[in-house]
Design goal:
This protein has 546 residues and is mainly alpha-helical. 43% of the residues lie in helices and 7% in strands. The chain is built from 22 helices and ten strands.
Length: 546
């Protein structure tokens, strides 16, 4: 058995709750034996396995490997790679689509690849075992069928979102629909997208609207709903039909739009009145005298604008407990606490061209971007250790800290592992703008709801370009911009991202140069890990340009 398969079996076969245990994680053989002999028998087993699938998805970001979110920001025109001035140049290789920046980095995504396939393995295992579960709480066949279908729907959504991340990153990936140790070749991307669409359609149709009502967000926050499935289906449709200029996924534009209208008409979600209340660092206010943070301006996790979020908590440790937001620390200012902002590793310095592009009075600018000089942080900022300093960094997703510099999240207070900010995968604003883009009769109303919340004047008509431009500012640093560019066409993405920008690295003058040709030759896709190619005995083939 090669290492790629072993990673899937060891990481994926085990059913672990959000508060995973290091002993059970490492004790592979007994745990596997228990599952084979005693598990997947009862409804409770199925629900526990489903939690394990959520945990598998969570681990794609909590395991400390290169996360999809950070990748998405580095690749976009929003951010540069950043990190420490003496660090390796892997982030620069990604930012410039140029492996010559770090020729030895041929395994940038190896951990990411394994994390995703471990999560998919869990989902495939539950889907395989679910039909054979015989013991259900209810004796009513209709209730049993509905429960089984709801569990299957949630599982298939999680599998779909993991495959959607993989196929956008690497395009041609092994398409596994059952737990297997076979050495599987890469699938045509159309086949992967068709499975994603089938999974999302099933989830939308089989997770009852009443399963996880928003009114009970405290207990249901983070669970997949039919609304999340309909919204994610729209995101998949827009990307595939945009990038590939084909409409052959087995779902029509009208069906996708109807799903979004269902989400809107459900009245389960609303836009928050104050944009900055969506994110902790954007809304917290430091009180140095009492060494506290006033958090009253933050709307909280699972608020009414959240359609689906990837959940994290602050109980992660270095002994197998993996449930914190490990990528968030990458976004913090390099070795610099400036409450409410906590320190981090200085990745994703913000492109000044985005800062100057905001319209006057757009409230999203100050809610999204930390202005290091404008907020006085330059007085303490660690310039000598920061690569590609631009004067700006990300505010929406950054660690938070008390005025004395300690973490405010609880747990171990280790800033690397106690970050617990959720990643909001889908916001209601996205639902509105996708519906507008797909041609809703209410397009102007939906657009203006988002646009005017930012403090801008409403429009009487909107074009597709208006909507795409609105998305740039509404969703800055939310992991959407790169994919929004790529779905407008490779040439559009390449010409938009390509640039030359003066920066500071270690307080010395430096230049970031990104060429359109590098983006074009990769077709916008990433490097398949060399380890996986080697372990597959050449069955996996490297993407062009890497």
């Amino acid at each position: 058995m090669n290492k790629f398969k072993l990673n899937i079996l060891v990481l994926g076969a085990m059913i672990i709750s959000f508060a995973s245990c290091s002993e059970s994680f490492l004790d592979v053989e007994p745990q596997t034996s228990i599952l084979d002999q005693n598990f997947y028998k009862t409804e409770a087993d199925a629900e526990m396995a489903l939690v394990g699938c959520y945990d598998g998805y969570q681990r794609t970001s909590s395991n400390g490997n290169l996360s999809f979110y950070v990748i998405s920001e580095v690749l976009s025109d929003n951010c540069f790679g950043g990190t420490g001035n003496t660090d390796g140049r892997g982030y620069q290789a990604l930012d410039r689509f140029d492996i010559s920046q770090s020729p030895s980095d041929n395994n940038l995504f190896n951990g990411t690849w394994g994390d995703y396939y471990a999560g998919i393995f869990r989902c495939n295992t539950l889907l395989l075992k679910l039909p054979d579960i015989a013991s259900w709480t209810s004796a009513d066949e209709a209730v049993i069928t509905a429960t089984r279908s709801r569990i299957e729907g949630e599982t298939r959504f999680l599998r779909a979102i993991m495959y959607f991340d993989l196929v956008r990153l690497f395009e041609k990936v092994p398409l596994l629909t059952e737990p297997t140790t076979d050495n599987v070749a890469q699938a045509d991307p159309a086949e992967t997208y068709k499975l994603i669409v089938e999974d999302l359609k099933f989830a939308a149709a089989n997770i009852p609207a009443t399963a996880y009502p928003k009114a009970n967000a405290v207990t249901n926050d983070g669970r997949v709903t039919s609304y999340a499935a309909k919204a994610m289906l729209a995101r998949v449709y827009l990307f595939y039909t945009g990038y590939y200029a084909k409409d052959d996924l087995g779902v029509t534009k009208a069906e996708v739009l109807a799903g979004l209208e269902d989400v809107i008409e459900s009245h389960e979600f609303e836009l928050l009145e104050d944009y900055k209340s969506l994110w902790p660092a954007s809304s917290y206010v430091a009180n140095a005298t009492e060494n506290t943070l006033d958090k009253s301006g933050y709307a909280g996790k699972g608020n009414k604008e959240t359609v689906f979020a990837q959940k994290f908590n602050n109980t992660q440790d270095y002994n197998g407990m993996m449930d914190g937001n490990r990528w968030l620390v990458m976004m913090g200012m390099r070795n610099t606490n400036w409450s409410p902002y906590g320190k981090g590793w200085g990745a994703c310095t913000v492109n000044p061209s985005l800062v100057t592009a905001y319209a006057a009075g757009d409230a999203r600018k100050v809610a999204s971007i930390i202005d290091i000089a404008g907020e006085g942080i330059d007085k303490t900022f660690d310039f000598k250790d920061q690569r590609e300093y631009t004067g700006y960094t990300v505010k929406k997703y950054t660690p938070t800290a008390l005025p004395d510099g300690t973490s405010d999240t609880g747990g171990s207070n280790d800033f690397q592992i106690s970050q617990d900010q959720d990643f909001v995968v889908i916001r209601y604003a996205d639902v509105l703008l996708m519906a507008a883009e797909l041609g809703s009769a209410n397009a102007v109303t939906y657009y203006n709801a988002v646009h005017t919340r930012a403090g801008l004047t409403e429009k009487t008509s909107v074009t597709k370009d208006d909507i795409l431009n609105e998305r740039r500012f509404e969703f800055a640093f939310e992991g959407l911009r790169y994919w929004d560019l790529l779905r407008q066409g490779l040439s559009t993405a390449a010409s938009t991202i390509a640039q030359t920008q003066n920066v500071l690295s270690g307080k010395a003058n430096d230049v970031v140069t990104i060429t359109a040709g590098n983006i074009t030759k990769t077709r916008g896709f990433m490097q398949i890990p060399n380890t996986q190619i080697t372990l597959s005995n050449g069955v996996l083939v490297q993407n062009a340009g890497w």
